[in-house]
Each structure stands twice: as structure tokens, then as C-alpha cells.
Amino acid sequence: MSNLPWNTSEPLLEVKGLQAWYAAAQALFDVSLQIRQGEVVALMGRNGAGKSTTMKTIMAMMSRRAGQVRFMGQDISAWPTHDIASSGLGFVPEDRRIFTALTVSENLLVGRQGARAWPDGTPAPYWTVEQLFELFPNLRDMQQRLGSQMSGGEQQMLTVARSLMGNPYLVLLDEPSEGVAPVIVEQMAHMILELKARGVSILLSEQNLHFAELVCDRAYVLEKGVIQYEGTMAELDANESVRRAYLSV
Ligand SMILES: Nc1ncnc2c1ncn2[C@@H]1O[C@H](COP(=O)(O)OP(=O)(O)OP(=O)(O)O)[C@@H](O)[C@H]1O
Description:
Layout: E1 13-22, E2 25-35, E3 40-44, H1 51-58, E4 64-71, E5 74-75, H2 81-86, E6 89-92, H3 104-110, H4 129-135, H5 137-140, H6 152-164, E7 170-174, H7 182-197, E8 201-206, H8 209-215, E9 218-223, E10 226-232, H9 233-238, H10 240-246
Parallel strand pairs: 3-8, 3-9, 6-7, 7-8
Antiparallel strand pairs: 1-2, 1-4, 4-5, 9-10
Helix pairs in contact: 3-6
Bound molecules: adenosine-5'-triphosphate.
């Protein structure tokens, strides 16, 4: 048995009353959301709605913030970012922070963390480099390539793969489909479904309803730093007024 103070019937991630500021400008207002084990949840909203800020606040990357973040039964609100990441909460930022002077293989090794277990002692999702190459076949063909010589979409894949090297329980994925070629978007959708099948939970920031519908169970919709709607993907799809008011469709 592990010593995780978490019962799997409780949410894996529970965010309550999150607020955040850029200097004097408040960017998040009382944002609350939950992700249960095995769920893929969309965080939707237009440019500037606050999706990235929500993720950065969960990861303690906003210097001025308030509210509570519980992950696997622990209050992580005051933890530093690196402790949050090493507890099994992965974050793939939108700006693709790979090491451009390192090769694909070296970038992956930088992300390596040990294997994890669920509270009942069963193994949590674990990724070998070979399994990651199965998930991202393009990366297998460019193992010795420098990060600086990869396309934006390839860098995006490498960022996701490196995060999976940390064997996270939950990944915050910030707009993985934004600005990448359609063939890569397709691979991203396949990758998210594969993660879900392996038991990894995901919070996916997304503007594209069609992409979110392919892979997500539920959605929260943000506008101006406020959660305006929450529901299943089917409910959101059927709700034309919410779609028109807060999404680009
Ligand atoms: N570094 C920053 N300094 C000041 N204001 C910022 C900064 N980053 C974001 N903001 C503001 O905070 C608000 C939320 O932005 P955020 O990036 O979280 O939105 P988003 O939903 O992720 O949109 P996008 O898809 O454009 O990333 C916006 O009004 C934005 O202008």
C-alpha cells in the first residue's frame, strides 16, 4: 500500500476559488473545477479567456494567486512548482519549452522520473522511451536531431513526450492542437485517447470544440477569467447559446 492520503472516490484534482493576477490586473475570478481519476476534461474558451493562466496557477507559476488546489488528497496550494511536478502532476505549456541545444533523446532523458503507484499499490501509468516512440512515431525517426531543428508540431510532441517521461497521474495540456499541421492534430487526438486508455487523467485547454469532442468527457468554459459553463461534451454540443457566447463556433 502506498501512503497517499487519497481515496480514489475523491477527485484526483480539485481546484476551489482560484484567483490570479498579472501585476494589478486580476485574470482569474473564483475558478473551481474537478477532475476524477481517468477523466479527460476540456478547459475551453476564446483567446485570452484565462485557460493558460488557470494551468499556470495550478502549477504555482503565478506569483500572485489565491484559492485552493488539492491533488491526490494533498493541499498543494503553497507548494513550489518543482514539488508539484514531481508529485505526478505534469504540465505541457503552450510555448513548447524544449531544450533546443539537446537532441530528442536527451530532451526525453531530462524528463525522467521514477515509477509511481496508485493508493492501493497497483502500478500507475509508466512510460518507457520505446512506448513513447510508439505513441509518437515521428520522434523515433529523429532521435539524434537537435530541438532547434524541429518543426513547431514536432517540438510540441516532444514536449508532451518529455512530460510523460515523468509518469504523471494527471497532465495539464495547454492547447496542443494550436498552430500545428492537421496530421499532427490527428496524432495528438490519438495520443490523448491512448493516455486515457492507460489511465492518465488530462485537463486539456482547447478552443476547438471539434477536437475537444473527439477526446474529452466533460468541459468547463471560461470567459474573462470566470467559469461560465460546465457540462458533458454532449450537453455543450447541444447548447447553441453557450457555444455562440463563449466559443468560436
Ligand atoms: N504575462 C502576462 N502579463 C499580463 N497579462 C497577461 C499575461 N499573460 C496573459 N495575460 C492576460 O490574462 C488574460 C488571460 O490570458 P490567458 O493566456 O490565460 O488566456 P488563454 O485562454 O490561455 O488564451 P490563449 O489561447 O490566447 O493563450 C488575458 O487577458 C491576457 O491578456
